[in-house]
Predict the structure.
Amino acid sequence: MKTIFYSMAGEGRGHATRVRGLIEDLKKDNRIILYAPDQAYDLLEPVYNSSDVLVKKIPGLHWAYDKNKKLNYAASVTNALRYIKELPGVVKHLSRDIDHYNPDLIISDFDPALPRAAKQCGRSFISFDHQHFLTAYDLGALPLHLRSKASFMAPAVDLIYTGQEDTIVSSFYFPPLKKGYKNIKQIGVLINKEITEITPEHGDYLTVYLRRFASRSLIKALSGCGYPVKVYGLGKLKNMRNIEFCEIDFFRFIEDLAGAKALMTTAGNQVVGEALYLNKPVLAIPEPGNFEQEINAYFLKDTGAGEMTDMENITTQSLKEFLNLSEVYRKNINSRRVCGNNDAVRIINSHLNKSDAHQFQIPRTVLNSTGAGAAI
C-alpha cells in the first residue's frame, strides 16, 4: 500500500467536496494523510475519524468580507500577511512528516505549505485544483472586464506555489489552453460516490446554496417564485412561507439537489459541476467582488446550461422565467463531460507507478530558510 500526502485550501464546501471525491477513489489502495484548514477540516475529519484516512489540521488562507458582504481585498491581504508569518513553522512541521512517513506521492490543492515542505525535502509534488485555470486557460473569449481581472490575478496563483511536476485543473468548463503550456491536464469536477450512486429526479422545488448572506430582494424573489424553496448556507433560520432554511449537511444537500427542479447558487466551480452532473439547470450568483466566480458564471451561461445574475438584480419575475425555461437549459447539459473522476484516478496512478529514479529532486541548497523558494 502506498502513502499519499494531500493538502488543501478552501473555506467553503467546494474544496472539501472536490478533495473527498478523489480520496474516496484512492483510499481503497492507498494510505491517505490529508492536511486541511479550518472549515474543510471540520467537514472532513468527522467523515474519516474512524477510517484509514488520517486528517490533520493546518492553518489556511482566509478571504475577508466587508459589512456589505463584499469581498474585501485589503483585509484579505492582511489575512495573507498573517498567514505568511506563520508559514515557516507550518512548513517545518510538514517537512518532519515527509521525512517520517516518506510518502510515495504529494498532492496540493492550492495549499502553499505542503509544496514548500516538499521542495525543502527535495521531493516532487503535483498540483490538483481549479484555480490554475487562471494561468493555463486561454480566456480570450471572456468580456474585457473579466479578461483584465484574470490577467491581473493570474500572477497571484504562482505566488501560492510553483515547481509542480504536473498541473491538473478540475473544472466544469474546458476552454483551450494557452500556447506553450505543457504538463497541464484538464479534467471535469470530482463527483462523490453519494452523487454518482443517486438517481436524479426533476421535482417541483428549487434548491438554493448561498454563502454567508442573502439580500432582501433575493428572499422576496424566492418567496414569490411559485415553488417550495430549500435554502442552504444561511444557517437554520425560521422558515417563512415557501422557504425552508436548512443547516449545511452534505448528504441532505445532495438529496435535495438530486430531487430539485433547478439550483440557484453562488458560482463555485464544484457545486455548479455537481448540479450539472445531476442534470440540474443552474442560476449562478457570483459573490460580490469574486471575479473567479464571475468567470465560472460566464462559462456556465456560455454552455447554455444555466444563467448568471447579480443577487440584487433577481426579481420574482426573472426567477420565474428561469424556472419556466428549466427544460431548455437541461437539454444543453453534458453530464458525462462534467465528471472527472476516472481521469483523475488515471493521472494519480500514473504518478504512483513512476519509479523513484524519475522523481523530481530539488537540492536543499537552493532554498531559503523558510522553504518558500522564490514564490514568497
Notes: The CA atoms of residues 295 and 331 lie 22 Å apart. The chain has two domains: 2-190+340-366, 194-338.
